[in-house]
Backbone:
């Protein structure tokens, strides 16, 4: 059997995705309702944000539009986990019912095979909403617009998204060991809500905790500084892309280790 | 349908939820993180406003309100829409309909065990800690009685809204979309994420005409209101009672008529 | 003939949580847990050659699925050695997976939302099947079963029978050397069962694929297997030809009689009279499994006739079902 490289997996993914989209389109009502649900989520998130901050010109040295930029940044950086890794939510159920066993019988990477099965298209609405928010606040703050800045933004957004993906993979993988792992997943899912505030609002101890123990600050705060504070970029911002990559790799190993421990229940 | 039968459902629910010891720890950590985030966030907001009292609420008022709102959420949210949606999609709903108890009641009483454990394990400790830490910010008088009455009605209203929305799942496959829409709208409009006092005036007026504020805002304002006149408390409770009755009738009628329609169509 | 599977003294143990009962028990469970060791598979050895169809039988919970999981590389044995296609499966799960096919329980392994043909095309890519091989296989499928009506149907819309058929076709698609079929005919109607048996038989003949089949349906065994392996409570009870087994029980005959009155009640009375034999009843017949080494059938019939009038009777060779039942109950000496 020949070696399966990145090309092989991309080709398979593209084919599954195309087929999956085709079949999703045939459930149009579901698609429309889910999209409306996603829009509702984003609008209500935004309304909550607006109600909280509209009366204050700045919070802790962050202007309203800077906060909004951070908000948009976090929306975009949590989109990939929503779109590409949504099957993690079903992992626990599949492990308990024994259906997970089917992923063990194919000669391809189990993690890839599992995640490739679901592409959550409604996350794209969030992506659009997030990009819109970033663009709007970018304009209002009066940040300089350049190709380099855009390039930086994209690179930092992608690597930042890896942090959230990593947290969710690891959280989902806990179902291989503990029974009620749903709450672990739910807990990490809540992290995304906490990631949209500047970490400077916390005191020293919690800044440390949210940087190194529950690394929520790497989902949006540190990476976004590359645009928001171009004159004083801290070291943590520069290393955040590597953090994303390393975390992702570790979470992948945990997931695979859990899957290899999997024994299958039932018959 | 006697009380004993209902209580045996309660007992089974208690046993089931106790079996998951780890989940309690995780819920605790999750709530702790939430507390930390909102504490620092609102501290920053109050600091930047430069005032002691914003929209009629002090910093500690706001914090107590939000902490207890999240504690209430943890014990009254039963993910009824999911439960119903899944039962409908898997076809298990038929089995539920064959039970010698009306499904709406059966489901409610099966949840009741979890209400009890969650009340003692999540709400009560939170309440006691908050009462001690804030030292006197919560009165101990008739307001506690009002609160208990109010929270029971809040549970009933919340459950019936959920059941109403869950019934929609008979018509569409889009459980996710329906559920998320319900959840974000209820959380925002009930004042669970941001206290209703902070809403702009017109928005506030609209929200007071909807049933949602009876779930979080009503019990919490009864609990936290200082020296509230009896007439005001009775008005709040009266409005809740009204919504209780309205939502019970609506959810019951909607379910009955939907079921008829579905059975006719052989769905 | 070459060996494709070799199992030597394999055991598998599981740690199982003892849950306590009742409200008090579950509160205790919060603080301390109590485990026990269960031996799912206990010292099993066998060798399977290319092209064999082996019936792997045993009552529920006997350890069949555990053995199959070990052969497919999903589980690591606690002790002993398994070689499949010259490899240790759990160390080379992906490599092993490329050369086996699995249909496991009633769990479809196909993409739920996709039409079957699209699933096949994806499998073609995943297993790296060449265009020629793929076309060959599809042509062969077409010659064996009428797949046109299901080819463009999403798996989620299929009936159980169609889904099982699809899963079997998918398992053979990459022409694996071994296919594991776990209860492939469970819950299917008679015509679908026979369709699936014919298909498995044809694939085995045409491609010389080794088939390991677990089933509770003796019809499957009669139609497909020359060799059977029986395990119970993790231990191997029997491994030999079907023929040999039937010879072993060659002295057994099933005597079927019909008498006046309620057959079930009569069967109970007869059961007491002939306590050395197994007596059962269905809607039409009372069946008595007679061991002719102990007593002649004619003798038994005589005794029966003394107490009651026999309206009708039949004499049959022992059925596979009865043979297996006897082995589960008594073992093979």
Residues:
């Amino acid at each position: 059997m020949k070696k399966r490289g990145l090309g092989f997996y991309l080709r398979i993914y593209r084919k599954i995705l195309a087929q999956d989209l085709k079949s999703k389109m045939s459930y149009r009502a579901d698609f429309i309702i889910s999209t409306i649900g996603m829009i509702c989520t984003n609008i209500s998130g935004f309304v909550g944000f607006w109600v909280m901050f509209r009366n204050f010109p700045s919070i802790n040295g962050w202007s309203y539009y800077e906060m909004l930029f951070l908000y948009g940044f976090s929306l975009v950086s949590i989109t990939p986990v929503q779109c590409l890794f949504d099957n993690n939510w079903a992992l626990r159920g599949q492990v308990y019912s024994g259906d997970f066993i089917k992923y063990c019988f194919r000669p391809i990477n189990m993690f890839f095979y599992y995640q490739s099965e679901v592409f959550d298209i409604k996350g794209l609405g969030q992506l659009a909403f997030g990009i819109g928010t970033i663009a709007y606040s970018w304009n209002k703050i009066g940040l300089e617009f350049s190709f380099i800045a855009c390039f930086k933004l994209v690179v930092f957004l992608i690597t930042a998204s890896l942090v959230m993906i990593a947290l969710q993979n690891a959280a989902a993988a806990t179902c291989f060991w503990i029974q009620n792992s749903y709450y672990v997943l739910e807990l990490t899912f809540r992290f995304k809500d906490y990631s949209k505030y500047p970490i400077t609002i916390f005191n020293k101890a919690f800044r440390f905790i949210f940087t190194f123990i529950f690394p929520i600050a790497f989902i949006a705060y540190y990476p976004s500084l590359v645009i928001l504070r171009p004159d004083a970029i801290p070291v943590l911002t520069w290393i955040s892309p590597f953090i994303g990559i390393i975390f992702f790799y570790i979470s992948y190993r945990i997931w695979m280790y859990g899957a290899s421990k999997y024994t299958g229940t039932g018959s | 349908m006697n009380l004993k039968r209902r209580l045996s459902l309660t007992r089974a629910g208690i046993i089931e939820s106790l079996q998951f010891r780890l989940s309690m720890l995780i819920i605790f950590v999750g709530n702790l993180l939430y507390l930390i985030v909102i504490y620092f966030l609102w501290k920053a907001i109050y600091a930047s406003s430069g005032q002691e009292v914003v929209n009629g609420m002090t910093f500690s008022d706001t914090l107590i309100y939000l902490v207890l709102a999240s504690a209430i959420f943890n014990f009254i949210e039963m993910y009824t829409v999911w439960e119903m949606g899944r039962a409908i999609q898997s076809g298990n709903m038929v089995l539920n309909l064959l039970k010698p108890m009306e499904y709406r009641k059966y489901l409610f009483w099966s949840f009741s065990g979890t209400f009890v454990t969650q009340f003692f394990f999540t709400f009560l400790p939170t309440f006691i800690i908050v009462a001690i830490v804030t030292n006197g910010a919560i009165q101990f008088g008739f307001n506690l009685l009002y609160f208990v009455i109010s929270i029971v009605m809040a549970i009933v209203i919340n459950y019936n809204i959920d059941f109403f929305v869950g019934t929609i799942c008979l018509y569409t496959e889009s459980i996710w979309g329906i559920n998320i829409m319900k959840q974000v709208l209820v959380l925002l409009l009930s004042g669970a994420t941001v206290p209703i006092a902070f809403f702009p005036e017109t928005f506030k007026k609209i929200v007071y005409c909807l049933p949602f504020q009876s779930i979080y805002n009503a019990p919490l304002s009864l609990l936290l209101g200082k020296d509230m006149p009896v007439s005001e408390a009775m008005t709040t409770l009266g409005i809740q009672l009204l919504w209780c009755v309205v939502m019970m009738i609506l959810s019951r009628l909607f379910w009955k008529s939907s079921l008829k329609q579905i059975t006719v169509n052989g769905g | 003939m070459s060996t494709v599977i070799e199992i030597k003294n394999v055991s598998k143990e599981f740690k199982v949580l003892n849950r306590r009962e009742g409200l008090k028990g579950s509160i205790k469970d919060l603080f301390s847990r109590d485990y026990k060791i269960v031996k799912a598979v206990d010292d099993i050895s066998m060798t399977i050659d290319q092209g064999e169809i082996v019936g792997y039988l045993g009552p529920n919970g006997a350890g069949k699925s555990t053995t199959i999981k070990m052969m497919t590389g999903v589980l690591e044995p606690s002790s002993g050695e398994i070689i499949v296609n010259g490899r240790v499966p759990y160390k080379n799960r992906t490599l092993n997976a490329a050369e086996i096919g699995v249909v496991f329980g009633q769990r479809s392994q196909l993409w739920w939302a996709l039409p079957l043909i699209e699933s096949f095309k994806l499998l073609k890519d995943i297993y790296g099947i060449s265009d020629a091989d793929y076309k060959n296989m599809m042509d062969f499928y077409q010659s064996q079963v009428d797949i046109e009506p299901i080819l463009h149907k999403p798996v989620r819309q299929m009936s159980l029978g169609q889904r099982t058929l699809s899963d079997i076709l998918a398992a053979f698609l990459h022409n694996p050397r071994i296919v594991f079929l776990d209860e492939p005919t469970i819950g299917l109607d008679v015509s679908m069962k026979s369709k699936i048996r014919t298909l498995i038989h044809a694939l085995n003949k045409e491609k010389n694929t080794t088939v390991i089949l677990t089933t509770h349906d003796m019809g499957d065994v009669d139609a497909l297997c020359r060799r059977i392996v029986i395990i119970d409570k993790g231990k191997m009870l029997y491994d030999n030809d079907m023929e040999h087994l039937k010879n072993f029980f060659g002295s057994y005959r099933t005597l079927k009689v019909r008498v006046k009155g309620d057959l079930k009640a009569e069967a109970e009375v007869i059961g007491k009279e002939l306590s050395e034999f197994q007596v059962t009843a269905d809607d039409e017949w009372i069946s008595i499994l007679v061991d002719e080494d102990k007593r002649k059938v004619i003798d038994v019939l005589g005794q029966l006739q003394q107490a009651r009038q026999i309206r009708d009777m039949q004499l049959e060779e022992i059925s596979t079902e009865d043979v297996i039942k006897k082995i589960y109950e008594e073992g093979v000496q």
